[in-house]
Specification:
single chain; 359 residues; alpha/beta; Metallo-beta-lactamase, Chain A; five-stranded mixed β-sheet; 11 helices; 14 strands; 22% strand; Sec-metab_biosynth-thioest; MBL fold metallo-hydrolase
């Protein structure tokens, strides 16, 4: 069902979606792959770009899908039927999250030979965080993440136990990261299929998320930075407990302003769409509304993040969603705190509460 925000956008393909373990050709040399995810957000979009690298014909893959047997089998079917008998030449990953990074090691290893490596391309910040996270929790779960959420008011024992038990959350989905990579940086141009794709770095959702814009083709691979249906998750996590990622994210959206309105946006979740400026406005307005809700609540009495969940998230949340919701609630509080519009105090109970700054 299309929501009110989506109705203001244009979806050139209508409701068309790629089938399981197949591709949908959007235009010559561009194929859309859709892999399943075992979450409420039940899919990720991956992209195949026809390419030539070092004189070899083949494909560049953008993002990888989760590291599980179902995704491996889907990729193997695509290799057999959808690549026109050509190899994958390189793998570009927009950022370190498991649904994007999970099978990077398997893909690059599968398509590498002793003389022609299939290399991972991504930002340095996200590559090194993936290396770290594959051997630790890094804000995804475990005792440290649980204690951090408790310090922001999470009191439900069941959710606490769920977060504490997720000590292997990232390693279970990204057990191995390729041992080497090619660095992508903001403003860099990557030649793919005879056309230049400019890297646009975004912050807040991930340390150094890379979107790819091709002016000649009128395409933007937006990853998770701009999605048509939902707002991007932006969370504060335990390893950077005083961070202000939401301000970083909103500032990063400015980098997409001025792109042509007929740009076809290829998001990581949802359908390809046109109407980028409209969507950017919607996202800024969404967070402005959330900021106002938080300010109003904190003007009435001091609030911790868990207090705000029913106001910021009106739908029922499962425990997986609740952890992301906690991170987002803290992010909204921190943005206003860093702006000087809220003040923060640590109570005798070890919980941070935020209150309005007196005029």
């Amino acid at each position: 069902m299309t929501n009110a925000h989506e109705s203001q956008l244009h979806f050139p393909l209508g409701d068309a979606l790629p089938g399981n373990a197949t591709t949908l050709e959007l235009r010559p040399g561009l194929r859309w792959v859709r892999m399943q995810l075992p979450f409420v957000l039940n899919h990720i979009n991956l992209w195949l770009l026809r390419d030539e690298l070092d004189g070899r014909q083949g494909w560049t893959v953008v993002d990888c899908g989760l590291n599980n047997e179902a995704t491996v089998q889907a990729w193997e079917q695509i290799f057999a039927t959808e690549l026109d008998g050509l190899p994958v030449l390189r793998v570009l990953v927009t950022h370190f999250h498991p649904d994007h990074m999970g099978l990077a090691h398997w893909l690059t290893e599968h398509w590498s030979t002793p003389t022609t490596p299939c290399r991972l391309w991504m930002s340095a910040a996200d590559y090194y965080l993936a290396r770290l996270a594959s051997g630790s929790t890094v804000g995804m779960g475990g005792a440290s993440a649980t204690d951090f959420f408790i310090s922001h008011g999470l009191s439900d024992p069941q959710t606490q136990a769920y977060v504490r038990a997720r000590s292997d959350y990232y390693p279970s989905m990204v057990p191995v990261v390729p041992a080497s990579f090619q660095r992508l940086m903001d403003g860099q141009c990557v030649r793919i299929g005879g056309m230049d794709w400019r890297c646009i770095a975004g912050h807040g959702h991930a340390p150094e998320h890379i979107s790819l814009h091709c002016p000649e083709a009128g395409l933007l691979i937006s990853g998770d930075m701009v999605l048509p249906r939902i707002s991007t998750n932006v969370s504060v996590v335990d390893i950077e407990p005083d961070a202000d990622p939401l301000r970083q994210y909103l500032d990063s959206l400015r980098r997409f302003e001025g792109l042509p309105e007929d740009t076809l946006v290829l998001p990581a979740h949802g359908r390809p769409f046109q109407g980028l400026a409209t969507r950017l406005t919607q996202l800024h307005e969404h967070h402005a509304e959330r900021f106002e809700l938080v300010l109003q609540a904190c003007a009435q009495r001091p609030q911790h993040a868990a207090d705000l969940l029913p106001q910021l998230f009106t739908r029922a949340l499962d425990m997986h969603q609740a952890t992301f919701a906690m991170g987002e609630a803290i992010a909204h509080l921190h943005a206003l705190w860093h702006q000087g519009r809220l003040q923060r105090q640590l109570g005798a109970d070890g919980v941070y509460r935020f209150s309005a700054v007196a005029a």
